[in-house]
Q: What sequence folds into this?
């Protein structure tokens, strides 16, 4: 079974293009280093009537957009090896200054997940 890193964050809507540019670089780098899949998804239908809607969880402010993303790896061990390579990749290192990030990293939710169902 594969392994997944998942992320939930809020991005100022006016910085969504900047975030998308960063995400495209990230996608290229992660896939080149061995990730199986890399997705960035912008909230579209978040006013759900069941469970805990994402907006209640992350409490976006006016002018913020919710983004859900994930990276899928062959295994947890592969994730560790791939992320070591990714963090050394100069294409991504140039974008990782917390001061220039297009979102507040302190409000990002993230974690690693063991896959229990997959095709």
A:
């Amino acid at each position: 079974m594969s392994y997944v890193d998942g992320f939930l964050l809020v991005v100022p809507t006016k910085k969504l293009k900047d975030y998308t540019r960063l995400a495209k670089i990230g996608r290229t780098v992660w896939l080149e280093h061995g990730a199986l899949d890399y997705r960035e998804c912008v909230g579209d239908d978040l006013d759900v009537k069941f469970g805990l809607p994402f907006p209640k969880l992350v409490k976006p402010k006016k002018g913020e957009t919710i983004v859900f993303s994930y990276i899928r790896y062959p295994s947890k061990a592969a994730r560790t090896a791939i992320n070591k390579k990714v963090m050394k990749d100069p294409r991504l290192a140039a974008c990782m200054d917390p001061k220039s990030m297009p979102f507040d990293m302190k409000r990002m939710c993230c974690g690693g997940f063991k896959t229990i169902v997959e095709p």
The mean pLDDT is 95. The first strand starts at residue 3 and ends at 12. Residues 23 and 40 are 7 Å apart (CA to CA). Residues 16-32 form the longest helix (17 residues).
